[in-house]
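Notebook B, p. 112. Complex prediction, attempt 2.
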Amino acid sequence: MTLDKGSSRESADSLESTSGRSKIEFRLDSASGLPTYLQLVQQVEHALRLGYLRVGDQLPTVRDVVASLAINPNTVLKAYRELESKGLAAGRPGQGTFIEGVLGRVEFPELTQFRRSLLEWMAKADRAGLDEDGIAALFASSLWDFRNRGHAVADTEGAA
Amino acid sequence: MNVIETSGLGKSYGSTWALRDCTLAIPEGHMVALVGPNGAGKTTLLNLAVGLNAPTAGSITVLGKCAAGSPAALDGIAFVAQDMPLYKTLSAADMLHLTRNLNRRFDRGYAEARLGELGIPLKRKAGTMSGGQQAQLALTLALARRPRLLVLDEPMATLDPLARHDFMATVMAAMVDDGVSVLLSSHVLTELERVADYLVLVSRGRVQVAGEVDDLLAHHRMLTGPTAEANLYTEQLNVVHARQGEAQAHLLIRTNGAADPVPPGWEAQPVGLEELTLAYLREPGAAALPGPARRADTKIVGVAK
């Protein structure tokens, strides 16, 4: 039994590492509810924000991603195209996709400020009797409104 | 190039139509999921595509315009049947030898390298391999023929989760390495969500849904709102499937794009492949085939809370 497990792990590893170790490894979270390509995009953005990825770093090759996650190569290509259209990555013919841009045009002090006002809002919601799930649901639904109906909603609601 | 093109395709056994009025044009480069309930006509369609059966009505061509079953078609298609056909008493090496002699094209170096990577000894008899290894051997024999289209009929039904993952990883890597297109029949919807980018849904012998997954998902929405208003919108919206409680209703609608207006007070959410497929399977009368969205001939049915 132990031998069997060892050999199957070995084979999985040899599938994964065709071109050396890459800076990040993607993972899939079926509970996230997000389409697979968006999960990949978000993981790159997250890695950029946290400094795991820097300008010039190569993203895992399509083959490596496909062989380790068993997902459709077109999904990986779609994620990389999305990163390109966001200006975060660029494809180099015959080489792969590389990080080009950085995230976070908002500076750190400003982020802290936003965080503080969000925390204040949460404390207010908590005092009003809203629990954590209620806060999350409200935030998600407001974000959806903001994204889909634009700033108009925020303005009219702010005025009311 | 279309890997499979059918027009009015039908197959009957006696007076029973296993498949009828099937018109499809599946472009190359996709991983096509063929889904549908048991007895819907999936295997019939696959058998027609690989030339194991001849159509009763209509026509089918593969890989451009090759007649299904013609030598050119057979050279370009590899088929792994439902029961993983391997001779249990033959070793991996014997199976390689046999397959090489039965086919005009066979890349022995590729096959041996793959089995080495997978840690499957050439001397091991197929019958003594694990289910996962047998599946990988059958897949390796198919891929070593260097096909342009790989057809898999319920390949993962008997595999454990790790073996499924490794099997699919091999298939996906072949898409990248060799540009092979894949047609896979399955009724395990959750495992298709990550791999399929083209969906063909067959039910009761007819094609009900066909198209690129991204397009299909972009043209369907789940609307959630008050049940009292649900009937107002069924006239205006193209409702595929409705689920209603006393107060709240979910309508899965087919739209003409994301720009379709959302009724005031209703919330629109994107749908996933599994949700979409289940909705159509529950409404055999509804269809989503290439062309503009038309009203589905389904009525809103009340569902017990």
